[in-house]
Amino acid sequence: MRENYILETVDIPTLYKIMLERQRAGYRLAQICATAYEGGNELIYSVVDNYTFENYKVIVPIDEEINTISDFFPSAMLYENEMKELFDVKIKSINPDYNNKLYRIAKKAPFKKEVKEAVKVVKKEEEAAE
Known about the structure:
By secondary structure, the protein is of the alpha/beta class. Helix content is 24%, strand content 32%.
């Protein structure tokens, strides 16, 4: 079954185009997954048609805003509200937008990873030379 599995890294505009094409071709949205890294988020959008499972990964910098896909995959609004609330992914035009009230959580964006100050790594040979 692995021959029917796709994982492709795409940019954000390409993702929208692919998602719209898949929706028109009868695919269904299986899931959207978010993973935080320092300075941004990695999002994986998965669609399914019969035995074909396609995954499209996008990297979203922490300050970049993306558009919703809930206009053509209505179920995406749950995933998008979750990513917005837990990871602070900036998603515009979610329909409906729960405005960070999907979960009862004590901390805002608990899975968001802030950008840390750059650390210089010095090798032992460099230390000896200085």
